[in-house]
Amino acid sequence: MRYFPIFVDLQDRPVTVVGGTEEALRKVRLLLKTGAVINIIAPALHDELAAESRVNWIARGYHAGLLEGAALVYSADAALNERVAEDAKALGIPVNAVDNPDISTFIVPSIVDRDPVVVAIGTEGTAPILGQGLRARIDAMLPQALGDLARAAAALRQRVAETIPPGNRRRGFWYRFFFGDVREAFIAGESCNYLAGVENLFAADTQTAQGRVSFVSLGSEDPELLTIKAQRKLQEADVIVHDRTVPKAILELARRDAVRVPVKGELYDGATDVLLAEAKAGKLVVRLSGDVSIEETVSVAAEGIAFETIPSVPAPRPAEVIAFPVREDIREEILRAAS
């Protein structure tokens, strides 16, 4: 990964755009979604830029001093791109030269905007059409009211922090909020059902959290062969007990803040003790191994702890060559049958 994805706070910070044509306009349209102070340097402005009250036309001619103090710089003037990029780099300001990633220090991804929910898709400049296609698909998946739902969640955060302990219980609350009946009621504009659903979520969380162990077996080292259920369990897990031989690419699918406990993958390697202790503490535990251990499952069941086994998708076998009869073989069979 050459480009590290980040979100930059531009509230009340100056952003300088060099150029006043259609290319500059496209960048300004995006900047207008933020709280940035937009300054433009150009000999002339596109009509839409000239009519925009938030655009400050600070100069007709360019010189490096005009960039000082800017949080970001966009250059949308082909004749000036290299000069602007050099000047911005000298001043330590991130710069994007339109359609010229080789001299830019940052690039702009394709964006799905459900403010404050924003999804950014980048291809590091290698396949912009692919990025646009992914954006279109994601855009179609996300309801327009998703941003409003996120704001409604923000209004509940203080109450959640005061009444629901951190960890899997709090994550469970938010998961049910964003992906259950509460969300559906909110998206449908059913305010009474939404408010009742929220209260039901708070009431349900007063129950004691129950730990659970999910035994996930791996049929191969290919992360793409994990089942959807196995991937979901990795995302939900508080603790992941895994064989040391489990590939890093598979562990990368887990939540970043999940506790990872590597074990040898042998009998009596301490895995059972960890499974029991964490599940009894109310944690969601995943045991990730090549094969599900009967000894471990029996120990967990003996303690009355809920568990499940999630089988893997076996690695595909090489294609086998099947002998197919040729014309001579068929002729010989017919002659033998007739004799």
UniProtKB/TrEMBL annotation:
Top-level class of the enzyme under EC nomenclature: oxidoreductase
UniProt-listed Enzyme Commission number(s): 1.3.1.76
Catalytic reaction equation(s): precorrin-2 + NAD(+) = sirohydrochlorin + NADH + 2 H(+)
PANTHER family reported for this sequence: SIROHEME BIOSYNTHESIS PROTEIN MET8
InterPro entries: 4pyrrol_Mease (IPR000878), 4pyrrol_Methylase_sf (IPR035996), 4pyrrole_Mease_sub1 (IPR014777), Met8-like (IPR028161), NAD(P)-bd_dom_sf (IPR036291), Sirohaem_synt_dimer_dom_sf (IPR037115), Sirohaem_synthase_dimer_dom (IPR019478), Sirohaem_synthase_N (IPR006367)
Pathway linked to the protein: Porphyrin-containing compound metabolism; siroheme biosynthesis; sirohydrochlorin from precorrin-2: step 1/1
GO biological process, one term: siroheme biosynthetic process
Swiss-Prot/TrEMBL keywords: NAD, Oxidoreductase, Porphyrin biosynthesis
Superkingdom of origin organism: Bacteria
NCBIfam families named in the record: cysG_Nterm
A Pfam family matched in the record: CysG_dimeriser
Residues covered by the Tetrapyrrole methylase domain: 213-316
UniProt key word NAD: yes
The UniProt record lists the keyword Acetylation: no
GO molecular function (one): methyltransferase activity
Protein name, entry field: precorrin-2 dehydrogenase
Domain Sirohaem synthase dimerisation: 145-190
